[in-house]
Design brief:
Chain A is mostly helical. Chain A has four helices and no strands. In chain B, helix 3 packs parallel to helix 6 and helix 4 runs antiparallel to helix 6. Classes of the chains: A mainly alpha, B mainly alpha.
Chain lengths: ~100, ~160
């Protein structure tokens, strides 16, 4: 097993799943129809988001790993990007709900 | 009362959610020290990261079950009707979604923990490994603090 590729693939999968969480969270708050659709899948919008997040992470990790099997990539760039995306995503979600509460949007 | 009913009761679920999170946070801080000081074997780091990740997954499942089954119908109305409804609107909403970042990032750190010290240094990722491990632990701590604020608000919502 190529550990470097495993790390790069899982890092990009974590980046994509984090972007998905931020995107679906904000879109679902602004679109009641989307939130209802999420709820209709599992009974609760958060459960559906959790399932989708886990699926996106696992599937994309596997696909990227298989596609990149014999190549080397920039491991530092993938990990740095993951760190930035998670920090920016945490701030974005908190800022969004703060603005939503105070009816900024 | 059978064991499943006990595990599904509200105080036990909250206790398990918090307890698993504390175990995950502690193990990731421990792992951070191992990365920083270049101590411990690969097996040692893999066990710490693996158990930490499993603890975060267990916290996700137990907390999620409590949130979906009990929080919305029992706790949310108390907070929304109390002195600080913003605690649900901002703190709880942020907490439940930021939590979704933790497990994928913890899994990435687990894979980094599978590398030897020589491989980590050769790849030039020691500083990033430290930062990512610390971020998992600190996000866990922040989420724990948010949970404390939510619980305290619900208690004061009942008292007031």
């Amino acid at each position: 097993m190529n550990k470097i590729n495993l790390i790069i693939s899982s890092a990009y999968a974590a980046i994509i799943s984090s972007i998905f969480v931020v995107g679906i969270t904000i879109c679902a708050e602004l679109s009641p129809a989307l939130k209802e659709w999420l709820k209709s899948i599992s009974g609760h919008h958060w459960t559906t988001k959790s399932i989708f997040t886990a699926l996106i992470f696992v599937v994309i990790s596997c696909v990227l790993y298989l596609l990149r099997k014999n190549t080397t990539g920039n491991i530092k760039r993938s990990l740095a990007l993951l760190l930035v995306i998670v920090l920016v995503g945490s701030i974005a979600i908190t800022a969004f709900y703060t603005g939503h509460h105070f009816k900024v949007w | 009362m059978d064991i499943i009913s006990i595990l599904q009761s509200k105080p036990i679920l909250i206790g398990l959610h918090l307890g698993f999170a504390i175990v995950g946070i502690d193990l990731y801080f421990w792992l951070l020290g191992k990365f920083k000081d270049r101590i411990g074997s690969v097996k040692n780091r893999v066990v710490l990261a693996g158990m930490g990740t499993l603890a975060f997954i267990a916290s996700w499942i137990t907390g999620g079950y409590y949130y979906v089954v009990y929080y919305g119908s029992l706790v949310k109305p108390v907070i929304k009707g109390g002195v600080a409804p913003w605690v649900h609107n901002i703190v709880m909403e942020a907490k439940e979604h930021i939590f979704l970042f933790v497990v994928p990032m913890a899994v990435v750190v687990f894979f980094i923990a599978c590398m030897s010290d020589e491989e980590i240094d050769r790849s030039g990722i020691r500083t990033l490994a430290i930062w990512l491990t610390g971020t998992v632990a600190v996000l866990g701590l922040l989420i724990g603090a948010m949970g404390f604020v939510i619980s305290a608000t619900a208690r004061w919502g009942v008292i007031n």
